[in-house]
Amino acid sequence: MKTRDLSELAIRNLREAVLRNSLTTLGVAVGVASLVACSRWESASRLLLHKRLTRSGLFDAVFVTSLRNFRALGNLLPPIRQRKRLAPLDEDVRQQLSKLSNVTEVYPQIRFVTDVRLAGKSESTSVLACPIPRAPAAHLTA
Fold it and tell me: Considering the entire predicted model, what is its pTM?
């Protein structure tokens, strides 16, 4: 077959199957559009999630804990004779940590595990206590 015959055959088939060709073209267009929309939605939701998590402060907090509070570490703790040389986390250490660059706030926490009893039922829970921030002296006037 010559090229001219092939092109006439192709054009005739296209004319006879207009509906089928139109539906196929429409299907391809919808598929491509849905892929683009899903890609855009995924990148926008990732950006939104990143912004919310960054604003939450979860990724810029550091917790410093004394080894004395880690009973669960067992064999990972240094021997008792070496633990005595460890400095306690007291007010002096808190002041030193607050003077480090990029540190905005340092405050103590008390954390322990206890049993809570109510109406004859007992539940093991963790208790966390933080100090209440003090208001500036100017705001304390009556």
Answer: 0.39
